[in-house]
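Notes from the 1:1 (GR / supervisor)

We went over the backlog. Supervisor wanted to see one worked example end to end before approving the batch request, so GR pasted a single chain during the call. The sequence is below; no edits were made to it. Supervisor asked that the structure be written out right there so they could see what the output format looks like.
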Amino acid sequence: MTDFEKADINGDGKIDEAEYKIHIERMRREMEDEDAKRDQQRKMVWFALFGMLGYPLFVFASGALGFDNESKIIGDMSGVYFMSVGLVVSAFFGADAYVKGKEKKKEKDD
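Structure output shown during the call:
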């Protein structure tokens, strides 16, 4: 479907002023949504990064404060923590890439 066909809501072959305004508003909202989505992805990645960097510091601090048993337990959990965070981030970005690939293929087929 071309941009002209998307903008021609009533299908009469002409784009009047109301259809043009609706089309422009739709495009503006799509851009805002994509921008907000990128901002959320960036925040998620920073949160995951700080968590992955802060985790070893937390283990070190608990050992330095004399909590040796707790430090060992927290250290033993690190493998699961790092794998979980990596899985969540990669699944999110993988799903996003998959959806974008399907959209491009759909546009190409139309």
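Supervisor's comment: DSSP finds three helices and no strands in the chain.
Batch request approved.
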